Amino acid sequence: MELCDVCNSLDGRSSSFASNDEMTLVGVGQCEGRVALEHYRCRRCGALMVRQLCGESSEQIWMALV
Q1: Which of 6, 33, 41, 58 is most buried when burial is the number of CB atoms within 10 A of its CB?
Q2: Domain boundaries, the chain
């Protein structure tokens, strides 16, 4: 699967960037009552994107799961 421009621009970017209208939230993972991961599906290309919100700052990124 090829990523669209929106997903390509988010992949590897800091999780401090919020999702846009092309992303639909499909799941949330918690750790000790705190949101640790958010899973999004792209409406354009169908890619599954993960927004990691915990861990070291270098780990808090957007990742494409293709």
Answers
A1: 6
A2: 5-65
